[in-house]
Amino acid sequence: MKILTTPRMERCIGCHSCSLACARIVHKQLSWDTAGIRIRSSGGLSTGFEARVCLACDPAPCAAACPTGAYTQRKGGGVVMRRNLCIRCGECAKACPVDAIYLDPSQEPFVCIHCGQCVPFCPHDCLEMLEAVAEPVQK
Questions:
Q1: Where are the domains of the chain?
Q2: In contact, 47 and 13? CB cutoff 8 Å
């Protein structure tokens, strides 16, 4: 399984093309609130930008926190979401250690699903899909 990484964020100009591609292609909406990847300033006009994206935790704390099973662990890290089971309680967002689950105004959660649809829309090649590396099993 592949995961989305952000290895070259020093090139980012903050155009949000990746966020808009995610919202439009993956979630079939054109709204900043429905993207699984968010771009924001690192702290000022001259400090650059950072991408807030799911780190593909394994095990995923958001999946463990979901009371309905709407979030389930994805092989290789991250989660699979079944929207029909979501009750919009926000527990997934509270459990995320990197604040990468976004709640839209109606409390519907959006998270990166590591599909890579955003990658070709970045004009400066900041994003990359990499093969997930399995952690060695501790005995």
A1: 2-131
A2: no
Q: Is the pLDDT of residue 32 over 70?
A: yes
Q: Which residue has the tokens 């590591």?
A: 114
Q: Which two tokens stand for residue 27?
A: 């979630």
Note the pLDDT of residue 136. Answer: 47
- Rounded-to-integer distance, Cα 5 and Cα 127, Å: 6
For 17, 61, 92, 96, 103, the CA distances from 89, given in Å and listed in that order, are: 29, 15, 8, 14, 10
Query: Residue 25 belongs to what H/E stretch?
Result: none
Q: Please, which residues have CB within 8 angstroms of residue 111's CB and are 6 or more apart in sequence?
A: 36, 54, 62, 79, 81, 92, 96, 100, 101, 102
Domain 2-131 of CATH type 3.20.20.210: no
If pLDDT is split at 50, 70 and 90, which confidence band does 132 have? Answer: confident
